[in-house]
Amino acid sequence: MGRTLTEKILADRAEIEEIQPGQFILIKPDAILVTDESAPDAIESFKRIGARTVIKPDRVVFVHDHLVPARDAQAAETAALMRKFAEEQGIANYFEVGRSGVGHLLMLEEGLAVPGDVVIGADEHTCAQGALGLFAAGFGSQDIAAAWAIGETWMKVPETVKVELSGELPQWVGGKDLALKLAGDLGPDAARYKAIEFCGSAIERLPVHHRVALCAMAVEAGAKNAIIQADDVAASWVRPRARRTLRLFKADHDARYEETRRYDLGGFAPQVALAGRPIQVKPVDALDKVRIDQVVLGSCSNGMIEDLREAAAIMRGNKVNRQVRMLVIPGTSGTLKQAIEEGLIQTFVGAGALVLPPGCGPCNRGQGGALAAGEVAVTTAPFSLAGCMGDPAGQVYLAGPAVAAVSALMGFVADPRSVSI
Amino acid sequence: MLMKFRATAHAYGNYIDTEQILPARYCLSRKPEDLVPHLMEGADPEFAKRMKKGDIIVGGHGFGCGSPREIAALVIKWAGIRAVLADSFDRFFYRNAVNIGLPVLEVLAVQYGIKTGELVEVDPDQGLVRNVSKMRGFHCTPIHDFVKTLILTGGLEDYARRRITGGQRI
Hints:
With about 425 residues, chain A is α/β, with parallel strands linked by helices. Chain A has helices at about 5-15, 40-50, 75-90, 105-110, 140-150, 175-185, 200-205, 210-215, 230-240, 300, 305-315, 335-340, 345-350, 400-410, and strands at about 25, 30-35, 60-65, 95, 120, 135-140, 155, 160-165, 195-200, 225-230, 260-265, 270-275, 280-285, 295-300, 325-330, 355, 375-380, 395-400. Chain B has helices at about 20, 30-35, 45-50, 70-80, 90-100, 110-115, 145-155, 155-165; strands spanning about 5-10, 55-60, 85, 105, 120-125, 130, 135-140.
């Protein structure tokens, strides 16, 4: 029987002939991503195992993204622990504060995750990396520690839900809007513990940053991973940076999917979602006028240079509303450098926004930018749980960069299509 | 082989999240004696007083969803809960449970067939669950051999330790 894209990659890396959903497999990951937030628990677990050496240190990637720069003594201790462990174990792919960024984006931009790979990451949104045609999913700290110690991890082969997208993407609608719409449609159960494979004529034209935003949100629909076949768009993006050989897998024509959903993007509107689990999604024009206090642009789902360009195009020559704070967080140090060269940072600062260091931003309390009780924010992050961005009584809306930028100017959750820019 | 066992159920509905299993305000401590008295407090404040070692928890869809809190599954194990049965599990909760050797069984529609206080017979090897109080049976996928290995060795860390010290694949 034919195989889905996820089944192909897993079977290849697990070196097995037969593969089917529900099966348990042992697999050797090509890369293991660990962040400053997850490193301490993984290092603890590694010690409990009694392991002395990471058996494939060249496959381990350490990033500083959640707590940059260290906000207090505890965060500094964590960072020091990570640094020491990396040195002892000879982990060369160690990205220090100032040369780091959101792990998932850094992995793609640095060519450390390439098509055909199996990547495990100690972070929920590792699924973002599936954008380049690789298997990537979030794992726990014990999984990471065991994989360091024995070079393998266990997996339950997921069922695959196929999502076919056709039609033209309307202006101001991007990967994030598609992701929100889809997470709302699927709800928390339809894709639970499953792979989501995106395909169709609209995907073939979709630039990489939209693919990343689309895949990053898969975990919000309960999915294990999201994946898009690496085509010419992905291959030409990744080739100049790839540190390993690309392996371009395709799903079989007779692959068995648990379910197929089809969408025509033609009539799609920008989407917003009231954060939580599950999220509550609406087209932006269906929302009553919601006044906002803060806007956050960045994160693993919208922290790439193209996301910053989209927001800057809206903000150029305009001012952030006087009642709004806007935080701009380039995804990685490389993106920050590029944004400076292109004049985007000048645009943001000129508009009255605050630029923060590359990283995950406030969506997990790590980088400042908290909300007071009753305050409302719009963020391009893929999620926000109660209290993640300050007071649990703060309200957070998820949206793409265009909605975020235009909302920052207007002072309420606004539709980029209704404003002449 | 895992033994067939009988246990009293504590039953809940859909989307019992990690905040209900163990509210975040208690998570600063990592000690069983601090945490076990608050198990399931967000869903059922009487649970910790009512439960006995060897009981089971029954849930609906998405058991363990919300913030992936590794401690949530561990506290269930510390409390002496023998197994968790649910219509479906959140993926992070499922992995965490398997990794610490807590038996988790996906049993379709189990939430409608078992009520709190009822006696349930579970045969993890055969994938058979029977509500003894009501004489009603459920089939599910038997616990996989690899998961069984983790349950019998005590969890992933012990499994990994055996692999590096003994060198053998189990």
